[in-house]
Design a protein that fits this description.
heterodimer, A: mainly beta, seven-stranded mixed sheet, four-stranded antiparallel sheet, B: mainly beta, six-stranded mixed sheet, 0% helix, globular
């Protein structure tokens, strides 16, 4: 079945780095748009980044632009998120999600139909 | 930047209809999606393209989107529907936008 499994979270000091991974199975990863979404403790969902089936399509939220880097390896069916210059405000559960995108009668659509269980990143001294 | 606004909480009695609103500038001209998140769990897509239910989502869930507001409607609300609900839309500049979330209480 379709499955997304995140890993790589942990405790890191401010200014540090982490690399999150998302292992994908059950669908054709190479054809799929993918995204990272995070949720700070007790807060709502915040979109972080997404990447198209071709790496030329990459977008970031303003809050992480220049610090985080999204990438993918189709040979390994894996999605990655490199987190640099981490701040306490980056503390959150990070989810990877499959994205369905396209253009319909109502315009462009972008929604996330499958989510992983998340991996927790804690930034603290 | 584009923003979506949701009320922090909505309450409903079991068996009644719950309406969860989401407002944004000309939201009706975009596609709205909705996610359900129960405590300690990952979000689950419950509505896309304004009013389409993914496989496995009960028919009690429906959606609409007109003008500046989208609404997720849950008919015959059950205790198992208690959760946080998030609306989401796409914007060409902000890209992906989530509402702040609404906690649905069934009491």
């Amino acid at each position: 079945q379709v499955q997304l499994v995140e890993s790589g979270g942990g405790l890191v000091t401010p200014g540090g780095s982490l690399r999150l991974s998302c292992a994908v199975s059950g669908f054709t990863f190479g054809d799929s748009f993918m995204s990272w979404v995070r949720q700070a403790p007790g807060k709502g969902l915040e979109w972080v980044s997404c990447i198209g089936s071709s790496p030329s399509t990459i977008k970031y939220a303003d809050s992480v632009e220049g610090r985080f880097t999204i990438s993918r390896d189709s040979a390994k069916n894996s999605l990655y998120l490199q987190l640099n210059s981490l701040r306490p405000a980056d503390t959150a559960v990070y989810y990877c999600a499959r994205v369905l995108v396209g253009t319909g009668a109502g315009g462009y659509y972008f929604h996330m139909d499958v989510w992983g269980k998340g991996t927790t990143v804690t930034v603290s001294s | 930047s584009y923003e979506l606004t949701q009320p922090p909480s909505v309450s409903v009695s079991p068996g009644q209809t719950a309406n969860i609103p989401c407002s944004g500038y000309k939201l009706g001209e975009r596609y709205a999606s909705w996610y359900q998140q129960k405590p300690g769990q990952s979000p689950v897509l419950v509505m896309y393209h304004d009013n389409k239910r993914p496989s496995g989502i009960p028919e009690r869930f429906s959606g609409s989107n007109f003008g500046n507001s989208a609404t997720l409607t849950i008919s015959e609300t059950q205790a198992m529907d208690e959760a946080d609900y998030y609306c989401q839309a796409w914007d060409s500049s902000t890209y992906v936008v989530f509402g702040g979330g609404t906690t649905l209480t069934v009491l």
